[in-house]
């Protein structure tokens, strides 16, 4: 089998991780061309990672005959320009999340890809990992009953620095674009289309959102809450609540190592306005509450222990799954991925745009 050749646009840490992730792909793959804002950056990257060709520009990399597909990991503000260049050259594109700077830009990318019959997919690597796929299948099968709510969090403290794209508004920075988007994408996957968005944010000294919180109402009435920050720590996990149980995706949210299903009996709602009996009054009084405080942690621990752990190991560093999705899709003659449909990428950008409008 011939080695699939990747052109890498952007030389930051994510591009480095993606290139290393190619080593674990089920399809033989290698980076053959690299381009960056400055030639010196591209040359340094090529030397460090053994990439044979340094392109003179992003456009030259897109047009190169040494490339079968492009991985676009430039700042979000440049995604549209670079994706359209690749699509115009007939090159499949894997665009690092978020797919674009905003929903209109995402729509233009998608329209161009479909008009030209070129494979295009957002590199939301979490969506391609085996654990997420297994957990989603079990939720759809009704394992925790009717899904009613989602809570996702992605936080990590960083020092504000406008030289970093994460803190630069001109390049599409901000904690929602770089971190909150993970939770938004998972909320859309697990709970379905979103019909209403409420949000608040704290804008930092460089002009981007450093802390944000979102509440989403989904088409079926379920509710998602999302928190993201690039100034504080957080649990960085996901909880999905159903009428019969709970799904906990363990931290880190971007690449969870395991999940746990915990089940609970449905409350019949008995009680209401009936007068308490003697035993109920004793349990509701101080002595009863003291006993309850001691027993509850044990009961919760036993209930958690009785749940089902789900392990879905990712290959390599986790980036191989999205690369394989593109390579296998191209080989099959597809133009987009069933695991990360373009229409959902557009929906998620619309959620982000609506959240920002609240600020």
Structural features, described:
This protein is of the alpha/beta class. It has 2 domains: 4-124 and 316-337, NAD(P)-binding Rossmann-like Domain (Rossmann fold, 3-Layer(aba) Sandwich); 130-313, Dihydrodipicolinate Reductase, domain 2, CATH 3.30.360. It is 38% helix and 23% strand. The protein has helices spanning 13-21, 39-49, 58-63, 76-88, 103-116, 130-140, 175-191, 278-284, 286-305, 320-331, 342-358, and strands spanning 4-9, 29-35, 53-54, 69-72, 93-96, 120-123, 147-155, 194-203, 209-218, 223-229, 238-242, 245-249, 258-263, 308-311. The strands form 2 sheets. Strands 8-9-10-7-11-12-13-14 form an 8-stranded mixed β-sheet, sandwiched between helices. It has a 6-stranded parallel β-sheet with strand order 3-2-1-4-5-6, with helices on both faces. Strand 12 and strand 13 form a beta hairpin. Mean pLDDT is 93; it is low at 298-302.
Named at the architecture level, the CATH assignment of the largest domain is 2-Layer Sandwich
Question: How many E strands?
Answer: 14
**Oligomer class:** single chain
Structural class: alpha/beta
Percent strand: 15-25%
Quickly count the domains. 2
What would you give as the CATH superfamily of the largest domain? Dihydrodipicolinate Reductase, domain 2
- So what's the overall shape? globular
- Let me know the average pLDDT: 93
Number of helices: 11
CATH C-level class of the largest domain: Alpha Beta
Give the strand line-up of the largest sheet.
8-9-10-7-11-12-13-14
N to C succession of SSEs: EHEHEHEHEHEHEHEEEEEEHHEHH
Low-confidence stretches: 298-302
Please give the share of residues in helix. 25-40%
Largest sheet features: 8 strands, mixed
**Rg, alpha carbons:** 23 Å
